[in-house]
Amino acid sequence: MKIQIVEVGPRDGLQNEKEMVSTSAKIQLIDKLAAAGLKRVEATSFVNPRWIPQLADAEDVLKGIERQNKVTHSALVPNLRGMERARESGLTEVALFMSASETHNLKNINKSIEDTFPVLRQVAREALALGMRVRGYVSTVFGCPYEGNVPIDNSRRVTNELLEMGVFEVSLGDTIGVATPKQVREVMEKIVKDTTSDRLAGHFHDTRGTGLANVLAALDTGIRTFDSSIGGLGGCPYAPGAAGNISTEDLVYMLNGMEYETGVDLNLLLDAGAFIQQELGRELPSKVLKAHLAA
Ligand code: HMG
Ligand code: MG
């Protein structure tokens, strides 16, 4: 059975690094990830560079990477200004993002949930008119750093609004890595009922070590698309304490062992992980990368 992996390391990972990574290293990383067989790579963000200085070089990164038909590169877009930048960069896919909890939405994109819908609807309309694919993210589905528990109905509502805007897939985010498999099963089962499992993805941060277990629970509910990040890089600067996404190396290792098809060459992926670890000059959380480098 096929599993789609959306590599978010160059965006979700690098947006949170204290050290600035050079544009050239970002370009090399993105090309190595594609060479390893990842078909979907989220390369950067077209957000306000004052909010996320780490990704202020979005245009230059997209200019430098190798564009090939087999790989879809995408970027986060929060508003029409971001959409304009994405269009000028020649992207074929953009990702909208918002939260299921009011306070995180406000801290992350400076708007209430109600005020975000019309902005994203306009962005989606424009992207679709240009022939782009539009992905959607819902953050804080499994818990909010400011509000704690988030009612499932809040996540359902935001998911359904995004689907109505025309997004092809909604990625459900455990932004601060608090979910456990039982909760993942409950939440995913409810949200799947509103749509179909092929229009949903799991986006798990591994703050408390439950990330891969949460993937297994989501697989049980029919989800076949997962976001992960090379080396386990990542976090959200507007979610205090959020750690990295599940590592792509760990995810691929587990799925290969379970005879799922990922299309990813683990050895080439490990080269990409070793490369970005070397660039950052610190040990990354990926367990499979650690084991590989120790062997
Ligand atoms: P704002 O300050 O309210 O925006 O930010 P504004 O419309 O008032 O504009 C203020 C200034 O920003 C203006 O410039 C705009 O031109 C500029 P000035 O006139 O002052 O010189 N501006 C922009 N510049 C470039 N590109 C843009 C852009 N937009 C405005 N797109 C905004 C609102 C949404 C832009 C801001 O809050 C922002 O950039 N937020 C992004 C935060 C972010 O990237 N967070 C991390 C990603 S989400 C995440 O990690 C979660 C996820 O992984 C899933 C999960 O884990 O749950 C996806
Ligand atoms: Mg994230």
TrEMBL record:
Domain annotation Pyruvate carboxyltransferase: ranges: 3-270
Family indicated by similarity: Belongs to the HMG-CoA lyase family.
UniProt KW keywords: Lyase, Metal-binding
KW S-adenosyl-L-methionine (keyword) present: no
Gene3D superfamilies: Aldolase class I
Species per Swiss-Prot/TrEMBL record: Brevibacillus nitrificans
Top-level taxonomic group: Bacteria
Protein name: Hydroxymethylglutaryl-CoA lyase
